[in-house]
Write a structure and sequence with these properties.
heterodimer; A: 721 residues; alpha/beta; Rossmann fold; 7-stranded mixed beta sheet; two-stranded antiparallel sheet; elongated; B: 79 residues; alpha+beta; SH3 type barrels; 6-stranded antiparallel beta sheet; globular; binds guanosine-5'-triphosphate
């Protein structure tokens, strides 16, 4: 599938075996991140000079076996059968080789040249494990090289073994697992169909591939498997089942029988596992201590995203403002200036403003993952998540959704199965993120100021209700999505609990930085484009009439005899009013007017409608857009003139627009609606198609409208408002 | 006398007798080294009662109770 036929070497390994560490050690951190065709799985690669040859080193996703039932799992086999794949480096965690050797066994069986990198050799001494790597090499008919990826030990030996394996003369490995005769007959029966499917494959490999089909096919969603192979495999499986045979069990246990003998021959009996990891676990998964620590860690992450990122975000916003001011002085006033200031610079600002939270969240997640604690987080909280059909690993992304959906959507990567990832990704934008808070504050300050409900201020009750509601709606949405749009078996929870390890800071940085770069490039371009589009929508067409009218008024002010300060105040107010009128005249403004009949039943008028359109850039932009609509100029959520203008706003029949009831309706609308193009952009990037962001936007907007409608109409029936 | 992993007292070793989850999951567990005859013990139960953590082939694995109930075990060395 790869276009250039540069020879490639794959790196494979179980999750957590130190594969990324080794990849980075070999590539010096100079990796290129792309996508595997057709699936949204990162394809990390780097070029490497081996002797005189330049090869591409490709990091495969972590896996326990080559057996596949989904396109995501299939990509490893696809990569393996690509014609330019020359060898595989299989990383094995030496401390878990009783299971970890299963993958290299499968790889070597497939006939591709393999070098086994036996990693974590520093940890084997601690558990009293001695491994005869030479004998292991003989048994596996492939080089087995002890390495310590974190300390870059054994890399030279690894590379020279790889170089030898790449030589065309090197012999194909002769490893024979020894399957039962009945199974061999089944394999032989399927091989001809496989041979017709893959005519270019060497004959010896048809057998191995037939074995792979027997184990993988059936209830799968694999792509490109011909019906002939499917049917043949199905028939063989059925015939075997009728005779009481379980083919899966036969295949896997034959391999493990072979492995168990190899391990018994090459590994010393080990001592008890290190007691400190066990002791840490006793605390971290303890009913009281464990849950308390869990709460503290989660709160720490939340606080960092919510408050810790604030100064950095502020700095980026200040910088953006500064750049805008600079551009405004350099460029002559006019459309070009507006485009640069309000379209391009604002758009770039809209993108990099996410950088602090993305970096922080991925540093945290990287730390949790590499230290082994993330698996415990999932272990502790899975019971709760299971209730709504989610995986324990969905917890951290959901929680991060309170801060910002953009990094949170990116964080769903830790969830293995695509369906479970999608459900999480589509539900978490309902969490009340920090961009909604300014909107709540504006509304609360406008309609609830000074009111109280019993002991509490009405505003506090309203805010608290919004957050509670957001959690409930998110969980409900996940449960519903799981049952309707993305049905599938409840996520299984088969999760390895790796021993605790201290993560390397360099790797954490490299990975977080890589994530950020992908976001900036892929989602960033979409966000920039949408910002410019939105700017155009709210700026054009311009009315010459309005401009002339205000030009005349300005001239009058300038000619009047009042003091300089009064003049400049009057001019400012004229500017603000002109901006407001021009906005009303623009496409966006007209659209706001056009949808007023739809907004009226939920208690909004056209001005709020325009605000909602502007808020698509980001929810808090609602406020500055309203500032313009009301002709006030710059405004934030604490702005008194804006609150006053909102309180004074009247519907055509003279009734006030903003009442406590329409305020609640507005807050609920903002809570539930997908008023955030950055979320759309990042969901597009992470789900791999426009289908899911479009669905997300539609269902959230519909939900928001219906909920606001129910609240507003219901409230009126009950006599509020 | 069909005992599952759930009936096994914490810390006590046993041998896996059979795995009867749906095919994909059974296959996954088998490929992770849980096979008839493999030595296993339950290390701990999560604070909220589910999932549970197993120790098998010198590594730790957690599975939900619903799945553990379908993994039958027998006392060691009783084949
Ligand atoms: N002691 C020791 N620790 C290591 C070694 N190699 C990696 N580690 C640690 O093991 C943990 C996992 O390493 P990663 O490189 O992230 O593992 P991975 O296989 O890429 O894991 P996934 O990204 O989940 O697939 C990290 O905390 C590493 O610091 C090693 O040789 N010795």
């Amino acid at each position: 599938m790869s276009s250039a036929a540069a020879p490639q070497v794959l790196i494979a390994g179980n999750p957590n075996c130190g594969k990324s560490t080794l990849f980075n050690a070999l590539s010096g951190g100079s990796a290129h991140v792309g996508n595997y065709p057709g699936v949204t799985v990162d394809r990390t690669s780097a070029s490497l000079h081996l002797g005189t040859e330049k090869i591409e080193l490709v990091d495969l996703p972590g896996m326990y076996s080559l057996t596949a039932s989904s396109p995501e799992e299939q990509l490893a086999v696809d990569a393996l059968t690509e014609s330019n794949t020359r060898a595989v480096v299989c990383v094995v965690d030496a401390t878990t080789l009783e299971r970890g050797l299963y993958l290299p066994l499968q790889l070597i069986e497939s006939g591709v040249p393999v070098v086994v990198a036996l990693n974590m050799m520093d940890a084997t001494a601690r558990i009293g494990l001695r491994i005869d790597t030479e004998r292991l090499s003989e048994l596996f008919a492939s080089p087995v090289i002890p390495v310590v990826a974190t300390k870059r030990r054994g890399l030279d030996a690894l590379l020279s073994a790889l170089e030898t394996q790449l030589e065309p003369s090197s012999e194909i490995s002769t490893l024979q697992v020894g399957y039962p005769a009945a199974l061999e007959a089944d394999i032989a029966a399927l091989a001809p169909a496989v041979a017709r499917w893959r005519p270019k494959m060497p004959t010896g490999q048809h057998r191995v591939f037939a074995l792979w089909c027997l184990l993988s096919l059936g209830e799968d969603s694999l792509r490109g498997v011909p019906d002939e192979v499917r049917q043949a495999a199905g028939n063989i499986r059925r015939a075997a089942a009728e005779r009481g045979r379980n083919l899966d069990l036969e295949i896997v246990s034959s391999r493990y029988d072979w492995l168990d003998r190899a391990v018994a021959e090459t590994c010393s009996v080990r001592g008890p596992s290190p007691s400190w990891s066990e002791r840490i676990d006793r605390v971290l998964t303890h009913p009281i201590a464990g849950i308390s620590i869990f709460a503290v860690v989660m709160f720490g992450i939340f606080e960092a995203l919510f408050a810790g990122a604030e100064p950095l975000i502020g700095a980026i916003e200040t910088l953006t403002g500064f750049m805008q001011a600079q551009a405004a002085t350099i460029l002559p006033p006019g459309v070009l200036q507006d485009l640069v200031v309000e379209g391009i610079i604002a758009g770039v600002g809209n993108v990099i403003v996410f950088a602090p939270q993305i970096l922080m969240l991925f540093l945290f997640i990287g730390f949790l993952e590499d230290s082994g604690y993330l698996a415990r987080v999932a272990f502790v909280i899975d019971r709760v998540m299971k209730g709504v059909g989610l995986h324990g690993k969905a917890f951290v992304p959901l929680l991060s959704g309170f801060a910002c959906a953009v990094p949170a959507v990116m964080a769903t990567r830790t969830i293995e199965r695509r369906r479970d990832r999608l459900v999480t990704m589509l539900a978490l934008p309902l969490m009340s993120c920090s961009a909604r808070l300014p909107v709540y504050i504006l509304v609360v300050g406008t309609v609830f100021a000074g009111r109280s409900l019993g002991w509490f201020s009405a505003g506090a009750v309203a805010l608290f209700s919004m957050y509670t509601l957001s959690v409930l709606v998110t969980l409900a949405a996940a449960a519903v999505l799981k049952r309707t749009v993305l049905p599938g078996p409840a996520p299984t929870f088969v999760l390895e609990m790796p021993p605790y390890r201290w993560p390397s800071a360099a790797i954490l940085w490299i990975n977080a930085w890589r994530r950020l770069r992908i976001f900036l490039i892929d989602a960033g371009t979409i966000i920039l484009a949408m910002t410019i589009l939105l700017w155009a929508l709210l700026s054009f067409p311009k009315s010459a009439e309005i401009s002339e009218h205000y030009a005349a008024e300005r001239a009058q002010v300038l000619q009047s005899a009042s003091s300089e300060t009064t003049k400049s105040e009057a001019l400012q107010s004229l500017d603000a009013r002109e901006a407001g009128e021009q906005l009303a005249h623009s496409l966006g403004g007209r659209f706001g007017h056009a949808i007023e009949p739809v907004l009226r039943p939920i208690g909004f008028d056209w001005q709020i409608g325009v605000g909602i359109i502007g808020a698509f850039a980001a929810r808090e932009v609602f406020i500055s857009t309203l500032g313009v609509v009301f002709g006030i100029g710059e405004a934030d959520e604490e702005s008194r003139p804006l609150r006053q203008a909102l309180r004074d706003a009247r519907h055509a029949d003279g009734s006030p627009v903003m009442t406590p009831l329409s305020g609640v309706s507005l807050m609920i609308f903002f809570l539930l609606a997908c008023q955030c193009m950055s979320t759309i952009a990042v969901v597009k990037k992470e789900s791999g198609s426009w289908k899911w962001p479009v669905f997300l936007f539609s269902y959230m907007t519909l939900l928001a409208y219906l909920a606001s409608l129910a609240v507003y109409q219901g409230g009126q029936l009950l006599g509020y408002g | 006398m069909n005992r599952s992993l759930l009936d096994l007292p914490l810390g006590q070793h046993a041998e896996i007798a059979s795995i009867d989850c749906e095919r994909r999951l059974s296959r996954r567990l088998m490929e992770m080294g849980l096979l008839p005859g493999t030595r296993v013990r339950v290390v701990r139960v999560a604070p909220l009662g589910d999932p549970i953590e197993l120790r098998v082939r010198n590594y730790s694995l957690s599975v939900r109770r619903a799945e553990a109930a379908k993994i039958a075990v027998r006392p060691e060395g009783t084949v």
